[in-house]
Amino acid sequence: MSNNEKQQQLQEIKKKVDSPKISSSDVKQELINLGKSIIKDINKGENPKIELSVRGLSNVIYNTKSKTLSLGEKTAQRFFFNVAHAKKFLQTIEVASICKNLLEVQKHASLRDVFYMAKRTIPNTKINVVDDQKESDKAIEDLEIITEFSREQLHVNANKMGSVAGKVVIEDSGDIIDWSKLGSGGWSIPSNVENIKFKKVDAKYIMYMEKAAVWERLHEDRFWEKQNCLIMSSQGQTTRGIRRLLQRLSIEHHLPIYVLADCDPWGWYIYSVIKYGSISLAHMAEEMAIPSVRFLGVTCDDIVNYDLKRHFIKLTDQDIARLKQMQQYEWFEKNKLWQRQFKMMKEFGAKVEIQALSSRGISFISEKYLPEKIKKTEFLD
User: Fold this and answer.
1) What is the DSSP pairing of strand 350-351 with strand 313-314?
2) Distance (Å, whole) CA 144 – CA 112
3) Long-range Cβ contact pairs of 95-99 (< 8 A, separation 24 or more)
4) Disulfide: which of 82, 163, 239, 252 matches 186 by Cβ 3.0-4.6 Å?
5) pLDDT in tens, 191-219
6) Domains of the chain, residue spans
7) Do 296 and 267 form a contact (C-beta atoms < 8 A)?
8) Phi and psi of 320, rounded to 5°?
9) Any idea what DSSP says for residue 365?
10) Rounded to the nearest 10 degrees, what angle do helices 265-276 and 240-253 cross at?
11) Cα(85)–Cα(376) distance, rounded to whole angstroms?
12) How far is the C-alpha of 123 from the C-alpha of 187, rounded, in Å?
């Protein structure tokens, strides 16, 4: 993909995310409209229903022009008077009511808060509205699809699970924060980064890594200072707040993004999610996907070049299944470079963690591995 094509893609995303800011009253009104549509069904003597897009790979479309995922046109209806639908129907309405109340009082709740606010026993039964948090989380995702507003716009936030350091100054809720002067922990990335204002950004690129332990190594070695970059991490799968922050920095400040993850199907999937969007959140791809992101490592070639075979971990059945699945994704299917990586991993029958590089020296990753790969532009697109 040429630089012009990448810039065009970023501009298309920028137009969508730069649309006029949505007010809380707009979001609340959409929830009220949902309630009115159900009341209308009841008044007409019809079975109350909710219509929403089908979530899942069968209804995910890969846009070859924008290089992002989106939901297709398949829809499903959920009816109250249907044994298979009734509980999910009730959960969606209950969570919608909670979100409406949050918007009215201008307060935010965590995903865990919403679970406990929804968890109660239905009168004269032994049935709970929700039994575990996965149910209330799914109801929130359904509301995102129904209302076309994000979880954060519905005033629901997730836990903070990421850190960032570098020469950036921001304004957050009236506070001025310098990411280069926050000690060993860096700045803790919140779930909602929409209202953050960038006052100063001095960096050549962003290095994103899946593991907090690797971030701590780079931070202690002052990698961000020596290389004039930003270092950012999560703990495993990338949070929505981090993906949105990465996208904002990419679009608003034209920073290239490199991904550093384990050489395994799960680390590679993290890269896929950042670049193209995730299957489960295809409806949010416009606000999160970053088509220009590149994978720096760890690759199967690194295993050979840096003599890491002695650190092999045998692939599990689950690993093999995920690898096969990724090979068949439309966005990887015709990518010869990635297909080569998939084939090499299959031949190895093994995976390698980022920390295996520490066998070459505690600071090998920051002093040699990363600087050399960036200088030689050894990345996968």
Assistant:
1) antiparallel
2) 17
3) 95/136, 95/139, 95/140, 95/143, 96/31, 96/34, 96/35, 96/143, 99/27, 99/31, 99/140, 99/143, 99/154, 99/155, 99/156
4) 163
5) 889 889 999 999 999 999 999 999 999 99
6) 19-157, 173-375
7) no
8) -65, -40
9) I
10) 50
11) 55
12) 45
| Tokens describing residue 81 | 């008077």
Find the helix or strand (DSSP H, E) in which 170 lies. Answer: strand 168-172
| H runs (alpha helix) in 85-222 | 86-105, 111-118, 133-147, 212-220
- Residue 74 and residue 57: Cα distance in Å, rounded? 11
CA–CA dist 179, 11 (Å, integer): 27
> Both tokens of residue 247?
């996208």
Q: Are 75 and 132 in contact (CB under 8 A)?
A: no
Long-range CB contacts (within 8 A, 24+) of 303-311 = 303/263, 303/348, 303/352, 306/357, 306/360, 306/369, 308/352, 308/356, 308/357, 308/359, 309/348, 311/352, 311/353, 311/356, 311/359
Q: Which residue in this structure is represented by tokens 């991490």? A: 233
* Under-70 pLDDT residues of the chain: 1-21, 236
Q: 19-157: which CATH architecture?
A: Orthogonal Bundle (1.10)
In the numeric block, the tokens 């229903």 are attached to: 49
Both structure tokens of 4: 């012009």
- Report how far residue 35's alpha carbon sits from residue 343's, in angstroms, rounded to the nearest whole number: 51
Distance (Å, whole) CA 202 – CA 93: 46
CA dist 354 to 211, 261, 338, Å?
Answer: 9, 6, 19
Task: Say what angle helices 24-43 and 133-147 make with each other, to 10 degrees.
Answer: 90
> With 0-12 CB in 10 A as exposed, 13-18 as middle and 19+ as buried, what is 125?
exposed
Q: What are phi and psi of 152, to 5 degrees?
A: -65, -35
Which tokens belong to 123? 């009168």
pTM greater than the 0.70 cutoff: yes
Q: Which amino acid is at 306?
A: Y
Domains 19-157 and 173-375 share a fold: no
Within 10 angstroms of residue 284's Cβ, the number of other Cβ atoms is 22
Q: Which residues are catalytic?
A: 116
Buried b (16+ CB within 10 A) or exposed e, 150-180: bbbbbbbbbeebbbbbbbbbbeeeeeeeebb
CATH 3.40.30.10 fits 173-375, yes or no: no
**CA–CA distance, 37 with 128 (Å, rounded to integer):** 25
